Amino acid sequence: MASVTFDKASRIYPGQARPAVDKLDLDVADGEFLVLVGPSGCGKSTSLRMLAGLEEVNEGSIRIGDRDVTDVPPKDRDIAMVFQNYALYPHMTVAENMGFALKIAGVNKEERASRVLEAAKLLDLEDYLGRKPKALSGGQRQRVAMGRAIVRSPQVFLMDEPLSNLDAKLRVQTRTQIASLTRRLGVTTVYVTHDQTEALTMGDRIAVLKDGILQQVGTPRDLYAKPENVFVAGFIGSPAMNLFDADIVDGGLKFGTATAKVDRETLAGASGKKVTIGVRPEDVVVAKSGEGLPVDVDIVEELGADGYLYGHTDVDGNRVDIVVRVDGRVHPNAGDKVVITPQPDHIHVFDLESGERLSKKAVETSK
Amino acid sequence: MSAVTPIDLPIDRSTEKQLARGEAKIEGSTAARRTKRRLTSRSATIAALIIAILWTTPTLGLLISSLRPAKEVATTGWWTIFSNWGFTFDNYVQVLAAGNTQLTMSEAFLNSIAITLPATVIPLVIASLAAYAFAWIDFKGKDWVFIGVFALQIVPLQMALVPLLSLFSRGITIGGVQLFSGLNQGTSYSQVWIAHTIFALPLAIFLLHNFVSEIPRELIEAARVDGAGHGQIFFRIILPLTMPAIAAFGIFQFLWVWNDLLVALVFADGTVAPITKLLAEVTGKYGQEWHLLTAGAFIAIVIPLVVFFALQRYFVRGLLAGSTKG
């Protein structure tokens, strides 16, 4: 077991001006479950493959523990990887698949068999050890791929979207299984996904990437409560945070007909006369009438306990869409007109130009 | 589709027939299913039978002729066997002992085996290694080398005969420096092995490369992460997965070398000549002894038949593999 360090590691594909991964600085502590998340093409898989040694590191270095592995071939890195399509060896049985790495490492037959069996018990695969991957279901194949990684007891687990080929229900089940399994084994894990829900539910910490650049690293709670820029604010959370451009006025911000109190220090850092404000759907108070922003309700999505109200308002003649969380039982209906106000402690303010966070306050008033 | 049908469920006649033939079990794309159905329909079966009979009849005639006395063969056709009854193994006994001044037919038969096995195995070994390198190892100028190998397929075999002969006998000398001294072995198998290997490699590399490159990248990456080097990846992953293609090409190459006469005439003369050369000589200058040819031909096709039946499973799968997905 070991920590993992990316030290200004870059990957530039030949013939491309922009690096696929740009000076990535990232520390993963020993035994930590770190999730790399971002939209497709953000460089998350490339980062993982750099750590695996399947992708060249053009600049900077990568360390596993104290060892610099930048130029070490994958076979000598003592890592195990779970691939998106599992990459099981089709001509080998489940047991042979799981024991392959041990066989290569020259582990004797008895020990190999006992370690494979141990891992198979852990994953509920004992009955399938003699089967070929062809004769397994998707979920079983996924478990075999996990087993192949576990058997080796490597320093680091690498997982490249291992759940994306499963159906929705199985994905939710497996996601908790993987998270608890890796924690029980205490092995450092780097997990790649494009699904922010997966990231929030599984990770000890999450690293958000965009266009090869690291946006923010932090605990799921940090990322949700205190996104450091507009991209993270919009990416983490579902439905996404409402983001508008608002004018700076005396004593706060003005958006359409509504005003919000924001302290002067926060706004002092703004580069222009406008800022971007963000309000999560659950941080909005809905009223039938009174002060606030008038909103026409388009539809209400009912999810049982909660509902999401999708509406729009006009600001200077421009239509602005808004999402608000409402009570699942009592809520306005489509066609209604309501008035909304943000909860003042839960307003995120970002610079309009740089997109960087201006509000300093950690918005964790609910303790 | 499930193959289980409740017994009391009314089934129309055509479904019943399909079930009886086990067609309901066929899974896969509808196109594949349709093709399968067409190929197994009654008219297709009849057509296949007719073709089989048309193509087997001459072989049967050859077999009957080879077992008839020389006098009968020379005067009557094999289809009159019932009116001119008579069987003998004399032709086989004679032909095995027949031959030219340097070797007999039975020695030539052994020569054929000695030529064909290495001339099949050597190119397969080299080609599968080359295919792996071309498909999965990055090195400078890879594409150009591959295009070069591919282009060599166009060179007619006949063009290479003289240069090869000169290479074997005199070696290579460039600017006064001798790079290769030639084989200087007179009559030996090595010349014909090398010649057949050289002629087989371009196509073998090309075919195997196409097959090897279709192995999913992740499999090889998984093996690399699992600790395998190039050697282990090749022997434990690539080779088992490429077996159908290797077997298919192996059969092709085996049959080609076994039936070859031209390359043998040039490079395997004298005491190392294969059976094809002896067959051509055994009928005599004027073809007067063609009853011997019938027996000789049968001896010559025994080995290819054995090889084909032993490996036909791979043959069919290997030719289809890669062409269909899923």
TrEMBL record, chain A:
Any one annotated GO CC term: ATP-binding cassette (ABC) transporter complex, substrate-binding subunit-containing
PROSITE patterns, per database record: ABC_TRANSPORTER_1 (PS00211), ABC_TRANSPORTER_2 (PS50893)
Transmembrane segments annotated in the record for this chain: none
Alphabetical list of SUPFAM superfamilies matching this protein: MOP-like, P-loop containing nucleoside triphosphate hydrolases
Keywords recorded for this protein, A-Z: ATP-binding, Nucleotide-binding
Iron-sulfur found in the keyword field: no
MF GO annotations: ABC-type transporter activity; ATP binding; ATP hydrolysis activity
Pfam families per record: ABC_tran, OB_MalK
Protein name: sn-glycerol-3-phosphate ABC transporter ATP-binding protein UgpC
TrEMBL record, chain B:
Pfam families: BPD_transp_1
Keywords from the UniProt entry: Cell membrane, Membrane, Transmembrane, Transmembrane helix, Transport
Transmembrane segments: 43-64, 113-137, 144-168, 188-212, 233-255, 292-311
InterPro entries: MetI-like (IPR000515), MetI-like_sf (IPR035906)
Location of this chain's protein in the cell: Cell membrane
Main subcellular location: membrane
Gene Ontology terms describing biological process: transmembrane transport
Domain of life where this protein originates: Bacteria
Membrane topology, record value: Multi-pass membrane protein
Coiled-coil region: none
Gene3D superfamilies: MetI-like
GO cellular component, one term: plasma membrane
Claim: Transit peptide is one of the keywords in the record: no
Protein family according to the UniProt entry: Belongs to the binding-protein-dependent transport system permease family.
Protein name (Swiss-Prot/TrEMBL): Carbohydrate ABC transporter permease
